[in-house]
Amino acid sequence: MAPDDNGNILDDIAPGAVRRIHLVGVAGTGMGAFAGMLKAAGYEVTGSDENVYPPMSDMLREWGIDVFTPYGAANLDRAAPDLVIIGNVIRRTNPEATAVRERGIRQMSFPAAFGALVAGNRHSIVIAGTHGKTTTSALMAHVLADAGRDPTFLVGGVTLNYNGNFRLGTGAHVVVEGDEYDTAWFDKGPKFVHYRARTALLTSIEFDHADIYADLAHYEAAYERFCATLPADGWLGVSASYPRAVALARRHSAAPVVTYGAHGEAGYRARDVAFGEHGARFRVAGPGAGDDPLTLPMSGLHNVENAVGVYAAARALGLEHGEVAAAFATFRGVKRRQEVRGEVGGILVIDDFAHHPTAVRETIAGTRMRFPARRLWAIFEPRSNTSRRNIHQAEYAAAFEGADLATIRLPEPHDKVPADQQLDVPAIVRAITARGVAAEGLAGVPEIVDLVARQARAGDVILVMSNGAFGGCIPLLLEALARRA
């Protein structure tokens, strides 16, 4: 495809046309991993960013990628790139991005470059949806790897089986987490339309990313575009728990649509589901499904449902029941997804990325299923642009019902969230308390750590949920518990 009026290559560039690639905004999780993948593929790779700090700075150094800081035109002199990849955090006025345009250097967004340079000559498997993308992508990739298919993958979290969020394989498949967020300053469409999906899973659709989508209809339009990218000889699995997603997929996908679920009616569904401290055990009912039970070292019906989707996709790709079962049993998960961070004095601390109210509710429910006899204390930081807003006020009030105790951090003021749209945490605390769960809101991490360190008791499970670092809450909490012990 020829460049547009701004010199941006939106979709295509021949892999052989470039040798030196420079990434502007390289210190982000996705951009950094993509830089590592390009380096492993044999390209000469450099990057730039405003702030570069561990762990990404250490990883880039380990991969042999030179990183320049701060942003500036001089970085292009040092990099001498054939192609510049612009991260979606980079604004049009960024001095380095401006210099790229002024010099007429070829540039692409990260998703477009991934689609052209990585996914273009492979069978692309894209995992999309509001919830569960990272864990489901990691599980899909692990199933293919464990079965000897040697896939390439790029996911949004650190996979514990492979100690990283990307892998460059020699096999025919590439698994990528399909993000609906916007692509770049010159392409405000969703990232996942660039990933050239042939096989896809759609885990869920609920309104999210209120900073870039006006309402549910606007949000769903992104998924309409994604479903329309699948070819007629492709395959699309959709969670039956989200009927609007199923209907949307059937309207817009040329590929056949297969439903899956953890309960109820679906083309593939879980049955005989049981949970314990070591995870889930279940069977799958569906066309050609084997009868032997599967074990998954994770808890929660949402994880079982996503695993059923992976099972259906894997069978469609030609894997046998036994191959999928063996991979499920050895899946170690993803960092910050029901990740046990430590146990001090009989107090278990779990870290999870949950921030949307549905994710908070399901994470609490899954943790309760895994530890039914232990007191569960849910601690939540509403940090994302959506969770800071009052659009899900009522849903958050109902999301903590499965916990015994709940503590919510009061969000700090945010210039993108007007005062009349801010989440009312005290009101949520009152609503949670009225439902029989002891709850309170606290402003700072030190107050939260002090409260838990004083009141937690042996046997408790402390579930900490945030899509950010939460001010170092977990390491501070573990230190405080150790001092108390």
How would you describe this protein?
The protein is α/β, with parallel strands linked by helices. It folds into 3 domains: 100 residues, NAD(P)-binding Rossmann-like Domain (Rossmann fold, 3-Layer(aba) Sandwich), CATH 3.40.50.720; 209 residues, Mur-like, catalytic domain (UDP-N-acetylmuramoyl-L-alanine:D-glutamate ligase), CATH 3.40.1190.10; 146 residues, Protein-Tyrosine Phosphatase, Chain A. It has 15 helices and 23 strands. The strands form 4 sheets. A 10-stranded mixed sheet has the order 8-7-9-6-12-13-14-15-16-17, sandwiched between helices. Strands 18-19-23-20-21-22 form a 6-stranded mixed sheet, sandwiched between helices. Strands 3-2-1-4-5 form a 5-stranded parallel sheet, with helices on both faces. α6 packs across α10. The radius of gyration is 23 Å and the shape is globular.
